[in-house]
Amino acid sequence: MTSHQILPVLGNCRLLGVIGDPIKHSLSPVMHNAALQAYAVDQGLDAVPYVYLPLNISFKDLETAIAGLRAIHCQGFNVTIPHKQAIMAHLDQISDIATRIGAVNTVWCSDTGWEGTNTDVYGFLAPLRALDRDWSDAEVMILGNGGAARAVIAGCEQLGVRTIRIIGRDRHKLEALQQDFQSSTSPHQIQVQTWEESEQFLGRTQLVVNTTPIGMAPKVDASPLSEKAIAALPKTAIVYDLIYTPQPTKLLAIARQQGKGIIDGLEMLVQQGAAALEIWLKAKPDVEVMRQAAQAILAKR
Ligand code: NAP
Question: Which distant-in-sequence residues (6+ apart) come within 8 Å of 138 by Cβ?
Answer without folding.
Answer: 159, 161, 162, 163, 206, 207
